[in-house]
Specification:
- The two termini are 19 Å apart.
- The protein is globular.
- The strands form two sheets. Strands 7-6-5-8-9 form a five-stranded parallel beta sheet, sandwiched between helices.
- Strand 3, helix 4 and strand 4 form a beta-alpha-beta unit.
- It is of the alpha/beta class and 297 residues long.
- It folds into two domains: 111 residues, no CATH class; 162 residues, Rossmann fold, CATH 3.40.50.
- The longest helix has 26 residues.
- The protein has twelve helices and nine strands.
Length: 297
């Protein structure tokens, strides 16, 4: 630590390093890529609740310590920052660093979505992420006469359910977990990225890395509309629904755009343009400027 000009400390390490950080002559900032959220079903509901409460207390303690001894902190979204301020008392500098992405190097012109619409979800395949709506989405798309296929990438407590219904005449294909490059290569061929996470606290404060990757792959984005599913500024590619039945609503929006719009210009090109603000070099540059500002304090 004595050789460093500045320290970035993940929130999980702030409490055990409290004494060292309190007495450090090197300036430091807490970095938080998202508050704790237990996942999976192992151990039952009581065990999950216990873990969640312990993690929350540990997280709260980390930010209270940082508010006393650090020169600032990094969060992933405005809602995340508001939550941090409610814990820290609002007296510390909090800097916004959303999830970023690299440009998708496998991009080619998309196929015609009116012939066949390709949709994908990539991430944890967990019930709490709202993936139960995927069947409703497929049914709604068929109701609008759209030939389509939905690829599910990842693993979780719904893996076996999706695996059992995948294949045959189903429009849903469960691909399981893929390497990152395989995922990016597949996204380049899609038309639509699905963000099914519901409008609850844990997803409102998040900054899903897959959202940035969807946009960098020229995809329209569908799902329920809330702060965690939105990039600053939005755009025509953001087709999120304010209705509780987002699957039916988003299917209707997709059908209308495919029928009346120019997909390449209205969705693909504008999504790619929006993604330029979320390339990792841009995010990293912002972080460097924030650190320089904290060093001057």
């Amino acid at each position: 630590m004595g050789d460093a000009d500045f320290l970035l400390v993940d929130w999980r390490f702030v409490k055990p390093l409290r004494r060292i950080l309190k007495n450090s002559t090197t300036k430091w900032a807490i970095i938080d890529r998202g508050p704790p959220a237990t996942s999976g079903t192992k151990g039952g509901r009581i065990r999950r609740e216990l873990l969640r409460n312990l993690q929350k207390r540990y997280w709260n303690a980390a930010w209270r310590i940082a508010s006393q001894f650090s020169v600032g902190g990094f969060v992933v979204s405005k809602e995340h920052g508001n939550l941090v301020n409610s814990v820290s008392g609002g007296g510390m500098r909090v800097y916004l660093l959303p999830a970023g992405t690299c440009p998708n190097r496998f991009m080619n012109l998309k196929t015609d979505p009116s012939i066949h619409l390709y949709l994908a979800y990539a991430g944890r395949v967990d019930k709490k992420r709202g993936l139960g709506n995927i069947d409703d989405l497929s049914t709604a798309l068929s109701g609008f006469g759209l030939s389509h296929s939905i690829s599910i990438i990842g693993e979780g407590d719904l893996s076996s359910e999706f695996a059992s219904q995948s294949g045959g005449d189903s429009n849903i294909a469960y691909l399981g977990p893929l390497e990152h490059e395989e995922t990016i290569r597949l996204l380049a061929k899609q038309h639509v990225g699905i963000l099914p996470m519901p409008d609850v606290a844990i997803w409102r404060i998040s900054s899903p890395i897959k959202l940035a990757e969807y946009v960098a792959s020229g995809l329209a984005v569908i799902g329920p509309k809330h702060s965690g599913n939105i990039l600053d500024g939005g755009g025509e590619w953001s087709l999120l629904s304010e209705n509780a039945d987002w699957a039916q609503d988003c299917a209707s929006i997709l059908a209308r755009i495919i029928r009346d719009g120019n997909w390449q210009e209205e969705i693909v090109e504008r999504a790619l343009q929006a993604s330029e603000n979320y390339h990792w070099d841009v995010i990293a540059g912002r972080m460097v400027r924030n650190i320089e500002e904290m060093l001057l304090q």
